[in-house]
């Protein structure tokens, strides 16, 4: 169940950050964020990417590149963790 909510958050992150979620969707997402550090980190990383992409200059680009790489690495780690638990449950 938790994996489903995490996947939904990834799909809804833009609407969340733009304030375009329904009141029920917002409540559900924010409730999930209180108990899921991985998704909270993901939201913060997306905010950082948005902030850095608005900054000009090479230093901002370098920081942005590293932030994007970290974001994808952390999502991959979360997915791998979910996959490992699913495989363990099958055995």
Structural class: mainly alpha
Share in β-strands: under 5%
The average pLDDT is 79
Tally of alpha and pi helices: 4
If you compute it from the alpha carbons, what radius of gyration comes out, rounded to the nearest whole angstrom? Answer: 15 Å
Characterise the protein shown here:
This protein is mostly helical and 91 residues long. 85% of the residues lie in helices and 0% in strands. The protein contains four helices and no strands. Helix 1 packs parallel to helix 3 and helix 3 packs antiparallel against helix 4. The radius of gyration is 15 Å and the shape is flat.
Strand-helix topology:
Elements: H1 2-17, H2 23-33, H3 37-53, H4 58-90
Helix pairs in contact: 1-3, 3-4
What features would you highlight for this structure?
single chain; 91 residues; mainly alpha; 85% helix
Summarize it:
The chain is mostly helical. Helix content is 85%, strand content 0%. Helix 1 packs parallel to helix 3 and helix 3 runs antiparallel to helix 4.
